[in-house]
Structure formats: C-alpha cells, structure tokens
Amino acid sequence: MRLNLIAKEKELGYTLIELLIVVAIIGILASVAIPAYQGSVIRGKRSVAQSGLLDLANRQEQFYLNNKTYTTSMNNLGYTAALVFADGGNSAVALDQNQGLVVSTSTARVYFVKINAATAAGYSIAAVPQLGQADDTECGILTLTSTGARTESGTATAADCW
Questions:
Q1: Is 3.30.700 the CATH classification of the domain at 16-161?
Q2: From 22, 58, 110, 133, which residue has the greatest number of CB atoms within 10 Å?
Q3: Phi, psi of 46 (to 5 degrees)
Q4: What is the 3-state secondary structure (H, E, C) of the chain?
Q5: Distance in angstroms (rounded) separating the CA atoms of residues 108 and 71
Q6: Per-residue pLDDT reduced to its tens digit, 83-141
C-alpha cells in the first residue's frame, strides 16, 4: 500500500497578494521618509544663509569703521566684482551650499545675499533662498539689520530660523 498517494508537492514562490502587500509597505515608508529627508536638507542649508549674512554684517561694520558710513555696494565690501550683481536694484552675491561665491545664474546657488538698504546710520541685509532652497516656507527670506534684529518671511519664528 502506498502512503504517498495523497501527498502534494509543495509549491515554491510568492503569491501576487504577498508581492502587492510588500510594494504597498515600501510605498508607505517612502511617502514618510522622502519628505522628512528633504526637510532635513532644507534646514541644513539655512546655515549658508546665516553665515553669509554674518559675514556680510562683519564686512559692513569694518567698512563703517573705516568710512563712518555703511555702503550699498558689495564691491566696496571686498566681494569679487565679477560675482556681484543687482537683484531688484540691490547689490548681491550668490552662495553655494559650501558658502562659496558663485555666479548668479549658477545651478549650484542656494542663496542670494544682498544689501536691502544702507545709510550712515544703519543697514538691512537679506538672504533670499534660490532653486530647491526656495521650498523653505518655514523661514523664507532671512533678514539682519545693523541693530542685530533678525527676521524671517516664513511661517516659523525668527528663533526657529536663526
């Protein structure tokens, strides 16, 4: 008598349902991880704006010590003349993610740092996000004045952005 008459061979592989469940799980994880990563990258690049503004403020203060007035020209502050341009009538330079100066049309630019206004009594400077960094709706444009006032144009508070 044969005992193996009823035994079936075991099938190997995955069913379509199992594969769809795995794909759905990967999709859910990606939908959470990708925006979180992009937000982290944007927050990390804000340091370019902060240090660019602080460098510009230091240059303005040195110019004031030498000339008893602030300037509206980045050329007067020692920035490379070939990289200085006008942004909305204001003297500006473009910074990349390594805080290096780049031409205003560079695809590596992260922020424009510009002089909004300058008089003998004070100045206002700003960092305007560019390209992918323009998605930074939390902080937007960061502004610094000669009095040390720090503001932002986004939805977050100045304390969160600085």
A1: yes
A2: 110
A3: -60, -25
A4: CCCCCCCCCCCCCCCHHHHHHHHHHHHHHHHHHHHHHHHHHHHHHHHHHHHHHHHHHHHHHHHHHHHCCCCCCHHHHCCCHHHCEEECCEEEEEEECCCCEECCCCCCEEEEEEEEEECCCCEEEEEEECHHHHHCCCCCCEEEECCCCEEECCCCCHHHHC
A5: 27
A6: 999 998 999 999 999 999 999 999 999 999 999 999 999 999 999 999 999 999 999 99
